[in-house]
Structures are given as C-alpha cells and as structure tokens.
Design brief:
This is Flp pilus assembly protein TadB. Keywords: Cell membrane, Membrane, Transmembrane, Transmembrane helix. InterPro entries: T2SS_GspF_dom. It is a multi-pass membrane protein. Among the domains are: about 65-165, no CATH class; about 165-250, no CATH class. The two termini are about 45 Å apart. The protein has helices spanning about 5-25, 30-55, 60-80, 85-95, 100-125, 135-180, 185-195, 200-215, 220-230, 235-245, 250-309. It is mainly α.
C-alpha cells in the first residue's frame, strides 16, 4: 500500500468518524413520547438527587458529583436520540444499578482507553516494535471501544447469573403460594405470606412490589407481571397472566401454580443437565489435547533421529 493510499484511507476514516460523532450529538426531531420520557427522567433525577443528599458521606465527593453530571448528560443524549437500550436497562434493573452511573462508567472507561492505547505504543516503541505514527491512533481508538464495551459484558454476565437465581426462587415461591392457598388463605394473603419467608434479594423485590401494589391500588398479580417485564423474567409474566385468569377460583389457582412450579423445576433440571454435559465435553477435549501433546512429546525424539539418519 502506497503512502498516498494510506493517507487517503486514514483521512476518510477520520472524516467518517467525525461525521458520525456530529450526527450523534446533533439533536434530532423530538416526538411526544420522547418529551414525556424526558419529563419522567427529570423527576427521577430529582428524586435521586434528594436521596443522594441524604446518603453516605463518601457518595458526596467530587468524583461522585462529576460521575453524576457525566451520567446525566449522557442519559439526556440517549434520550434525545431515542436509544432505549431496553435489554440493558432490564439487566441494570435486575442488578439494582443506576442507568446514569452505568453510562458514566462507560464514558470514563472509554476516555481511559484513549490514554491506554498510546501508553501501550510507548512500551512497544521502547522495545523497538513499531515506528509508524498511526499505530498509537489506532490503539487509542481500539482500546477506547473495548473499554467502553466492558461494562456491558459485565452487566450482562452478572444479570444472567442473578436471573437464574430469581427463577429458582420464583419456582419455590409458587409452591409456597400454593401451600398457603391450600391452608385456606386468600390469594392476596397467600402472595404476601409466601414473600415473607426469607430476606433474600429476590423475595424482597417481590415483597416490595406487592406492598407498592397495595398502596397504589393495583392488583398484585398485575404488579408481579410488571416486575417480570422490568426484570426480563418471563416466569413472573406468565404467572401474572395465569393468576389474572383464575384469580376467583382457589382450586384452579392452586392447580395452576403447582403445575407451573413443576414445569419450572423440570426446566431448571434440564438446564443443569445441559450445563453439566457441556462441562464434561470441554473436559474431554482438554484430555484429548493433553494426550496429543504427550504423544508428540514421545514421538518427537524418535522422529528427529529417523529424519537425521
């Protein structure tokens, strides 16, 4: 590749990047839904600010204030552009993390990646690897993108593990509700009593949802369905739909909850068996590679001696 072609390609990529940056930062046409969402975001931010004023002392430092401002600005940008990120918001809801703090973490890590790339190039330049001035630019952009995406990977991994725990708890919760119904309690009392058997995070979320439903006048099964939609747990949404259909018949409610709990246990058992099968296959591959390496270790001296002859 000639120097002219390399320079033209670099200029084209830089121009494309600047165009995409300006296009992303330029305010687009705002719809009514975006305006209402912005008003809700402002209310949530005011409530979070009031809670932060009553928080712990270490949360009121300059770094936390800077992080809050960056998160608020980036959240406004996402809101103006219509980037909803529903699955990511659902993962953050499962982990009980703030959307603004998450965005601030992504931006700060991306900025750190811009400096980490040239730092790597300086180490390589000291040992004599690479002299082109374009290398630190590409390293900075690559590290910035990688660092910017790292929080997404972490959140998705942690949220998947927490959802598995939540599904196990929901299966046990359905059995407890069915037992309370068999004991003569009504459906609202059974839902409330079953959520009070433990102080774990999953039952605590269910208990808080039921308490909010009583305050707002919403039906408890509808509130559980909304919780399942926010957390991305289909089992809670299915339970809400089934309870809404048979809420007036205690016998049908018990049968529905018992069959759904059994289905969840079978599904969980199938997932555990599948995970165990994958681990056994990976162990088999590792053993085969170890045997192949041992055979090479045994055959190599004899083969070298034969070829030398």
């Amino acid at each position: 590749m000639t120097p002219f072609t390399l320079t033209a390609l670099t200029g084209a990529l830089v121009g494309l990047g600047l165009f995409l940056l300006v296009r992303a930062l330029a305010p687009g046409k705002r719809s009514t839904v975006a305006s209402v969402a912005e008003i809700d975001a402002l209310r949530a931010r005011a409530a979070a600010h009031q809670q932060g004023a009553q928080g712990t002392p270490e949360e009121s430092g300059r770094v936390a204030a800077l992080r809050a401002r960056i998160g608020a600005r980036v959240a406004e940008l996402y809101l103006r552009q219509g980037w909803e990120q529903r699955s990511l918001r659902s993962d953050l809801e499962v982990l009980e993390r703030s959307w603004e703090k998450f965005l601030a973490t992504k931006v700060l890590l991306g900025a750190a990646g811009l400096f980490f790339g040239p730092f790597l190039f300086s180490i390589g330049w000291l040992i004599g690897f690479g002299r082109s001035p374009l290398i630190p630019l590409w390293l900075a952009l690559l590290c910035a993108v990688v660092f910017f995406m790292l929080p997404d990977l972490e959140v998705r991994r942690d949220a998947a593990a927490k959802r598995r725990d939540l599904r196990r708890v929901v299966g046990a919760y359905l059995d407890l509700v069915a037992m309370n119904l068999a004991g003569g309690r009504g459906l609202p009392e059974a839902l409330k009593a079953a959520s009070e058997v433990s102080d774990g995070w999953a039952l605590r979320r269910i208990r808080d949802t039921l308490a909010d439903a009583r305050i707002t006048g919403q039906s408890q099964w509808a509130a559980l369905g909304d919780l399942g939609a926010r957390l991305g747990v289909d089992e809670l949404k299915d339970m809400s739909a089934s309870l809404a259909l048979v809420a007036d018949d205690g016998a049908k409610v018990r049968a529905s909850l018992a069959s759904r709990a059994e289905t969840m246990r079978h599904r969980e058992l199938a997932e555990i068996e599948g995970s165990a099968g994958e681990k056994s296959q990976s162990m088999l591959v590792a053993q085969l590679m170890l045997c192949a390496g041992f055979l090479v270790f045994l055959i190599y001296p004899a083969a070298m001696r034969v070829f030398q002859i």
